[in-house]
């Protein structure tokens, strides 16, 4: 075969895919910047934020209040062992109500309480016209506000008119010294008397003589010594230096057994030695030096089984409230003796004593109405203010209340006390022979001390003071102090008893019999020393929950119906002693 001289034709094959041009409707153009669209987006975001805020305010409960960190009333979060304890919540509510009723700072946390109806209306002073709890305030009475000043039609006064000056011009400050007499004051008046002349020579007594050793004359170029400086080397130590002779050196040990004390500068002014220590605080008003006046009420136990005492007002310290049995065997009624102590009739008249019946309860009320005297006249121009009056026995007003039950009384249903201030609320003769149904006492300032008080339920609280003593509850014992201490001894009369001893600022201690109690216990403190629980047999103490500030468990055996809770939040240690 013959070979062909023709070459094969080269055909190019594309290696990349051919891209067709897009259609016109598929082309997207970059939108131009528009202030209108930006404003629309901002309006939508603002509307969303406002809607979220409105929903949050609508569905948020009124109790959720954010308290200030530096609020005066410290309220740290409490553990569950206290939050779910109904008796503890009952005691806490009682203390808060006591603070509000006696004016010891209840408004500090009234808005955070659950029973307060929260509102958004601000509080206004009276007659301000603003909304408050009960709507609009009434208009102020005539003359409540001072009338405005009359209009001024004359010319305007200059801003700071210079004072009239009739004498020669003052020289520039400081004035040059001159040897002539002093210039008289330009504006003599009673308010600006002239300065007194200097005292004549010999007006002041000479300084006391110097009893110590004389200093040697100073050398050339040496400053003269002053009183109190150490003598120089040239001073003769053998004369007058008694301290050197009193030093006894024995084997390198120096003693001052024979040294004479320096009587010229005693360490305690008015006393040769340390002043005597006071045994205790004594009230300023001495009851023995005041005149007593009594008001007696007779209460029939058959008619009234509940008695309440409301003792309010700022009385002086020194009084008491005492419960006891009468010494009179023939007495059949409860005798309430309210005694006031004063030396002036007008001071005694400030005490208002009354008694009445309220819903089956016998009420004894004591108030103090201070007599507002007119203010003293203002002092003369630029005269010193008179010193404040010193307290004396003539302005003292003290009260005491004695509650005496008949000798045959074996039981009584209820006694309640609301006392603003007293020295002691205590038990007297044979108080342990009466079985009370309930005892409830709230004290603003003072001490609650009973020995052998027996009741079915006992509830005690002191805002500023202590709760101490021995108690025999049958079902429940609740005691608390805000500023003070709670130290009680419990002798339960039943196998199941609930005991709570609490203190906000101070220690809290509960003592129970080791053989007469078995059940749960709980100890809590927020800031302070660690909690303590002691028993004769430590193996009977079972701690089931232990963390910072919380120690809980049971003693001998678990029993939810019988428990002891001790809480000391600040500056104190909670403790349980089983003896």
UniProtKB/TrEMBL annotation:
Ranges of biased composition (kind: Pro residues): 137-179, 191-210, 374-391
Transmembrane segment boundaries: 38-56
Keywords: Membrane, Transmembrane, Transmembrane helix
Gene Ontology process terms (BP): actin filament polymerization
InterPro entries on file: Formin_Homology_Diaphanous_sf
Region of interest (Disordered), ranges: 102-282, 371-391
Highest taxon of the lineage: Eukaryota
Bias (Basic and acidic residues): 106-118, 180-190, 211-250, 259-282
A cellular component term, taken from the record's GO annotations: actin filament
UniProt-listed PANTHER family: PROTEIN DIAPHANOUS
UniProt-recorded name of the protein: Uncharacterized protein
Annotated source species: Rhizopus delemar (strain RA 99-880 / ATCC MYA-4621 / FGSC 9543 / NRRL 43880)
Lineage: Eukaryota, Fungi, Fungi incertae sedis, Mucoromycota, Mucoromycotina
């Amino acid at each position: 075969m013959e070979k062909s001289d023709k070459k094969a034709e080269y055909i190019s094959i594309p290696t990349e895919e051919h891209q067709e041009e897009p259609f016109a409707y598929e082309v997207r153009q970059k939108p131009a910047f528009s202030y209108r669209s930006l404003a629309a987006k901002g309006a939508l975001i603002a509307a969303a934020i406002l809607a979220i805020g409105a929903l949050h305010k609508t569905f948020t409960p009124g109790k959720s209040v954010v308290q200030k960190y530096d609020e005066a009333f410290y309220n740290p979060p409490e553990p569950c062992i206290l939050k779910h304890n109904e008796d503890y919540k009952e005691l806490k509510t009682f203390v808060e109500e006591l603070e509000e009723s006696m004016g010891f700072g209840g408004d500090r946390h009234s808005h955070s309480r659950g029973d307060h109806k929260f509102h958004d209306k601000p509080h206004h002073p009276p007659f301000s016209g603003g909304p408050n709890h009960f709507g609009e305030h009434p208009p102020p009475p005539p003359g409540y506000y001072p009338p405005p000043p009359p209009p001024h039609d004359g010319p305007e006064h200059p801003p700071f008119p210079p004072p009239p000056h009739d004498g020669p011009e003052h020289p520039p400050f400081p004035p040059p010294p001159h040897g002539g007499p002093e210039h008289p004051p330009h504006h003599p008046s009673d308010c600006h008397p002239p300065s007194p002349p200097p005292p004549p020579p010999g007006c002041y007594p000479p300084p006391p003589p110097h009893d110590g050793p004389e200093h040697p004359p100073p050398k050339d170029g040496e400053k003269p010594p002053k009183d109190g400086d150490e003598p120089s080397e040239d001073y003769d130590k053998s004369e007058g230096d008694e301290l050197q002779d009193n030093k006894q050196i024995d084997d390198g040990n120096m003693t001052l057994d024979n040294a004479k004390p320096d009587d010229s500068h005693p360490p305690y002014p008015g006393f040769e030695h340390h002043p005597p220590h006071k045994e205790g605080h004594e009230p300023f008003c001495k009851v023995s030096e005041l005149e007593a006046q009594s008001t007696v009420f007779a209460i029939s136990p058959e008619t009234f089984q509940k008695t309440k005492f409301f003792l309010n007002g700022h009385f002086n310290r020194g009084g008491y409230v005492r419960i006891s049995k009468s010494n009179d065997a023939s007495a059949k009624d409860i005798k309430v003796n309210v005694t006031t102590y004063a030396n002036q009739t007008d001071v005694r008249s400030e005490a208002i004593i009354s008694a009445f019946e309220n819903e089956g309860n016998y009420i004894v009320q004591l108030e103090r109405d201070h007599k507002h005297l007119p203010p003293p006249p203002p002092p003369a121009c630029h005269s010193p203010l008179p010193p404040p009056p010193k307290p004396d026995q003539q302005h003292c007003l003290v009260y005491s209340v004695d509650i005496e039950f008949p000798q045959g009384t074996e039981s009584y249903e209820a006694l309640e006390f609301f006392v603003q201030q007293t020295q002691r609320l205590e038990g007297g003769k044979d108080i342990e022979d009466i079985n009370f149904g309930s005892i409830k006492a709230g004290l603003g300032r003072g001490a609650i001390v009973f020995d052998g008080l027996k009741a079915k339920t006992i509830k005690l609280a002191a805002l500023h003071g202590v709760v101490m003593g021995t108690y025999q509850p049958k079902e429940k014992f609740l005691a608390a102090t805000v500023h003070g201490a709670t130290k009680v001894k419990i002798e339960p009369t039943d196998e199941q008893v609930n005991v709570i001893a609490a203190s906000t600022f101070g220690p809290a201690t509960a003592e129970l019999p080791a053989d007469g109690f078995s059940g749960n216990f709980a100890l809590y403190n927020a800031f302070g020393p660690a909690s303590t629980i002691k028993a004769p047999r430590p193996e009977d103490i079972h701690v089931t929950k232990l963390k910072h500030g919380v120690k809980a468990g049971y003693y001998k055996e678990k029993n939810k119906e019988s428990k002891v809770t001790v809480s000391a939040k600040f500056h104190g240690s909670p403790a349980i002693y089983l003896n």
